[in-house]
Design goal:
Length: 433
């Protein structure tokens, strides 16, 4: 694949399905971008679509390509005058195809002032690119809009806390102009979701006046296929052949205040999303069901009296009355258990360390929680897990930038945790039930 040339065009692809994909681009001026796409190494001429970009959308736009071939690698070229950029993506296989799939996941980019290094950019995206994955799950904190990038040695341009739409967009643009991140997004598709720092730390959507502004910038800067009837919706699902179905949660837009006392009325997902999750996972015919949750099920975050993750435990992993979103979490897990959901995996970020956990809340039912990150942010450390889930930590390491890789094959699921130098820190193989 040829590298991008010319000044300023940015491109990414995402939310791919067997016959569709979303192309995102940012032009160099208001006008029309020329989008060409074709099957790689095919004799047929490329198809052409226009994509209009305007100043009031910060020169960004998305285009949904349809009528694509399943399990096929495509090339995309976006141009505007002399400026151009190229990308590749692979479409998902048909739902009944037993195709192997490799995906990456991580989160937390630019936190604590660990922003774009002037020397070489974000290092971690180079080993991620070398893995040649089918897609990348960007599991929240794609920006740290509320943390200035003002440390020595970082690229200037993000030294402020975002409060306006222009500032939120500028923080997204700052990240996306990083050359190693550009290279990864040109090589594989992305499914992105937010966590809190796309708005501000530990925000609860319905109660935060900045939420619509941060959401607008998020939608402007990622290739997200929101439904026409609900254009601000971020939770979504996609199928990757017979072996894998992924459910991406929005843990921010609908959540109750963290400080509210836990109980049946407190929700992280909201009623509609919760029902969507319960129905979707229990009816899924895929071998592996992967639920993407930006915040952990079992690792406590936030203040002791206002837990931001699902769990409400104290620093020793013991329950606290009224903390977290435990009632909703346990109701969801009980529903999955009652419906005999097998091969369930939760993928998370947020806690700034890497960990693989096997939870066994009852003797006859278990599931895994996979945690990765940060990509580049303040380094965290492992902490006691929620004892009520009967967890077993199979591996945990802090103090290192990292990402996760999952390989799904007919016989097993293999998870690897990889540091920013490309070294594999841990490998674990899970056999399907």
């Amino acid at each position: 694949m040829a590298p991008a040339t010319g000044p300023g065009i940015l491109v990414a692809t995402g939310d791919v399905a067997p016959t569709s994909a979303v192309v995102w681009a940012r032009g160099v001026r208001p006008g029309t971008l020329d989008v060409l796409y074709s099957v790689i190494n095919a004799a047929a001429p490329p198809a052409r679509r226009p994509l209009a970009v305007t100043a009031d959308r910060d020169l960004t736009g998305t285009l949904t390509l349809t009528g694509l071939l399943p399990a096929t690698r495509y090339a995309v070229r976006v141009s505007q005058g002399e400026a151009r950029a190229e990308a590749e993506f692979v479409t998902a296989p048909p739902p009944d195809a037993p195709a192997r799939v490799t995906f990456l996941w991580s989160g937390d980019l630019g936190g604590g002032g660990y922003c774009r290094p002037q020397e070489g950019g974000y290092r971690i995206f180079r080993p991620m690119l070398e893995r040649r994955a089918d897609f990348f799950l960007f599991v929240g904190d794609t920006i740290y809009a509320d943390v200035p990038c003002d440390k020595p040695g970082v690229v200037p341009g993000a030294e402020f806390r975002a409060r306006t739409l222009a500032q939120y967009r500028a923080r997204h643009r700052y990240q996306r102009e990083d050359p190693p991140l550009q290279a990864l997004l040109r090589a594989t598709s992305v499914y992105a979701i937010w966590d809190d720092h796309e708005v501000r730390n530990d925000f609860s959507g319905p109660h935060d006046g900045l939420m619509p502004t941060g959401r607008r910038a998020m939608l402007d800067y990622w290739p997200i296929a929101s439904p026409a009837e609900e254009p601000t919706r971020l939770y979504r699902r996609f199928r990757w052949g017979r072996l894998l179905e992924v459910f991406i949660l929005d843990t921010r837009q609908y959540r109750s205040l963290n400080r509210e006392t836990d109980g049946p009325g407190k929700s992280m997902l909201g009623a509609a999303q919760k029902r969507w999750l319960l129905d979707g996972v229990t009816s899924s015919t895929a071998v592996w069901k992967v639920v993407v949750t930006s915040v952990s099920l079992s690792i406590p975050t936030g203040k002791p009296d206002a837990r931001d993750s699902w769990t409400g435990v104290d620093l020793f992993g013991l329950p606290q009355d009224g903390g977290g979103f435990v009632t909703e979490r346990d109701a969801i897990l009980a529903h999955f258990r009652a419906h005999h959901v097998k091969n369930l995996v939760f993928v998370a970020a947020d806690v700034h360390h890497a960990e693989v956990i096997r939870h066994q809340p009852t003797s006859e039912w278990s599931f895994h929680e996979l945690v990765a990150g940060p990509l580049s942010a303040t380094l965290g450390r492992p902490r006691p897990l929620d004892v009520t889930l009967n967890p077993r930590s199979l591996f945990a390491r802090g103090g290192v930038f990292n990402f996760g890789e999952v390989l799904v094959e007919a016989a097993h699921l293999t998870v690897r945790l990889v540091d920013d130098g490309g070294a594999v820190m841990f490998t674990h193989v899970i056999a399907p039930d």
